[in-house]
Amino acid sequence: MSTKLRGVGPALITPFNENLSIDFEGLKKLIEYVSNEGCDYLVVNGTTGESATTTSLEKAELLAFTKANNPKNLPIVFGLGGNNTAEVLDRILKFNLDGVEAILSVCPYYNKPSQAGIIAHFTAIADASPVPVILYNVPGRTVTAISVDTTIALSAHPNIVALKDASTSMDQALDLTKRVPKDFILLSGDDNLVTPQLALGYQGVISVIANGFPKAFHEMTWAGLNGDFETAASLQRRFHVFDDLLYRESNPVGIKKVVEIRNIARARVRLPLLESSKELGLLLKEAMKHEGFL
């Protein structure tokens, strides 16, 4: 099992300037912030990074910039997936994946493929990728889910090493931890379920909330990994209020507002998302103060 994917990997937001070009200075500040606060690796171009609305050139620029502005030399995971298998394979060839620890590849969306189709899709990606592949199951966004049986089948591929599980299902988590090979890495994709999933055997989390609360979230995750579930549960409860607020106006609207409240980068998003409402901003700031994060 690779220890480089254990712990907390913030799914980095993509800050934008007033004209909605990428704010690389804001991104640099964010990378420095999460790195100095203890995060274990960086996740670039995930859905929290608004990968749906960044161009191929921008994605390449984000990856290159992160490589060049990585003060702790943390491992980098790069989001590289989609619902057009041929296009994903083409991007694998075109992106410079030197220095990338793994790619994070989402379950194909909209097409609604069968489980056999999902297996064929990820097998083609794993065969083509020069770096290991992390499966990403997020049925709340993709509709079609990667079943446990499909995960087990794909885990036999030598280049498929992990699953980011954002299914929100503890039943599925129980089944996965019983059945996956010992060297296959399970990562939480639900910030609100990290502590119980760690108790079952998950090895960490690819996190939205770690953009804004990296130190405490890292402390919580590693308390759980080290078997101190009293500390982990105590911290998990402090984050509970944000599980609603951060997603009330869709992700990454809420977490971008938190990052703005921390004076790291502005909360701008690209259409069809809209920037946080004034009401949500006030609620987030109040919650941050109430939980001792401000």
Report what the structure shows:
- There is one protein chain.
- The chain is of the alpha/beta class and 294 residues long.
- It has a single domain, classed as Aldolase class I (TIM Barrel), CATH 3.20.20.70.
- It is built from twelve helices and eight strands.
- The chain has an eight-stranded parallel beta sheet with strand order 1-8-7-6-5-4-3-2.
- Helix 7 (170-179) links the parallel strand 6 (160-165) and strand 7.
- The longest helix has 17 residues, at 229-245.
- The termini are far apart.
- The mean pLDDT is 97.
Query: What is the distance, rounded to the nearest whole angstrom, between the alpha carbons of the first and last residues?
Result: 37 Å
Order of helices and strands: EHEHEHEHEHHEHEHEHHHH
CATH class: Alpha Beta
Strand content: 5-15%
What would you call the shape? globular
Corresponding CATH architecture: Alpha-Beta Barrel
- The name CATH uses for the topology is TIM Barrel
Count of separate DSSP helical elements: 12
* Radius of gyration over all CA atoms, rounded: 18 Å
Helix percent band: 40-55%
Largest sheet: 8 strands, parallel
Tell me briefly what this model is:
The protein has 294 residues and is α/β, with parallel strands linked by helices. The protein has a single domain, classed as Alpha-Beta Barrel (TIM Barrel).
